[in-house]
Amino acid sequence: MASVKTLLEGAVDYAGLFPPAALSMPEAIINYATYRNSNYNWMLGRFVVQAARLDEFSQIAGDFVSRDAANAWQVSVIASDDLYDTIKRIQEFNAAYGPGIICDTVEIKGLNAGLIENAANSMPGDVTAYFELDLDENLGDLISTLSLTGQRAKIRTGGLTPESFPSTHDIIRFVRACMAADVPFKATAGLHHPIRCFKPLTYESDAPSGTMHGFLNLFLMTGFAREGYRPALLEELMEDEFEEVFKFEEQAIKWRDEFVLQTRQIELLREKGIQSFGSCSFDEPVSELQALGVL
Fold it and tell me: CATH number of the domain at 2-292, please?
């Protein structure tokens, strides 16, 4: 359906190198190449790799990539503590391997306003930066700095332990602040499942279990936040675990039948709101969306 395509096109940044999957570089690259040739390649976003592993990535990925810019692999780089070294690595990588592979986004820990401002001034024009923000008392000031410098935000929505999952209240506060300041954002960690659920947090047999946020909950909440819905309603949406209340039509998505996002509103939540989410699995989101009848 057009509504699903608009909502989820390019939404899943593949982070197979990172926990809980923690695959080897060859495994992750082969997976990504396979996903690019699958029926659901339209959902696939960037390959996520640490700056320190760019050389390793290029040695293996070169066997799978053409020099065709129209079919380029897009890469998001997790910056090291030395941002200027990261930028240098990205520029050298793009000069050597473009246009077949292009590092066009970088993800940076946004510790303070000064770091954001310095990074924004140093960022090459063809690289988009996302700054990961802590959900503390400085959040509003840092999002204001991102807005003033034309940068983007990043939120961590989970991890390997129950304590690493932020509260619904804090996620909504982050999203509403981004929408008010016109700052697009991405999310990462803990979003393997479409609908909020209680499940094991890793793939180990003795893994701890916890409540995991759903990526459909998050995407739709962002859309309703853009439309100015009250925080209490957004919280109900984020915490809804009943799949039957989410209905997908050709030109609209409904929640509880009475709350509707039309095609143009879905387009705006992707253009101006959430850009993508990082996941160490691509198969899991696809298979669960199939089980829900969304795909």
Answer: 3.20.20
